[in-house]
Amino acid sequence: MSLGQHLVELRRRLMFAAIALVVGMVVAFLITDPIIHWITGPIRQITEERGDNFAALNFTAVTSAFDMRMRIAFTIGLFLSAPVWLWQIWAFIMPGLTRKEIRYTVGFVAAAVPLFFAGCYVGVLVVPHVIELMWGFTPEGGVNFYNAPDYYDFVFKLMIVIGISFVLPVFLVALNMAGIMSGRAILKGWRVAIIIATAFAALATPAADVVSMLMLAGILVVLFFAAAGLSMLFDRRKAKRAAQILPPEASA
Known about the structure:
The protein has 11 helices and 2 strands; from the N terminus they run αααβαααβααααα.
């Protein structure tokens, strides 16, 4: 294909992806009420504990409520339309890949996507505890009026960060398959990995909730060792294939 044909194909793929995103946003906009009800759950719990109305979601502008719904709709719509726009990206780059690269890419996506959503789900479980912990630092007589856009950004970004942390082991395996890091090199960093996983879990969970911290840290450590084990297995297969290809004189 010529450069012009590639641009036409790219435009067509982007158009399909944009249409899917718009449809996903429309569907997501219809369910923003239960989503807002969920993310404001910790606020309601705080007001019940204090027995007053000194904690609330605050909309400081005329369009703040609508803007928040649109941002939620965009985020959820992006996830709902993911199968379509991911396929459009894949269909655009697939003709230029070899069979081996296609196989690796499919394996990477098949492992990364479920891990990312699993991390987001863990973030869903962690977010209320973090908000309650931060509320605990409010001095006596203080008022917690949470600015709606900032509150939403905090909840969304925390979920995304935890989701991405679950995908990092897949990147380690990808680096190994690309020949950048060996499985032994990855495994040698297990002490650093445990420290980082523990520190991240401690920051992402309340200090008093030791069970949640240990659970999150344990999941990250298990994923790290799984990535190291897979990388060492791949290295062993590569060594066997290299030994089969080399002639006996060369291997000797």
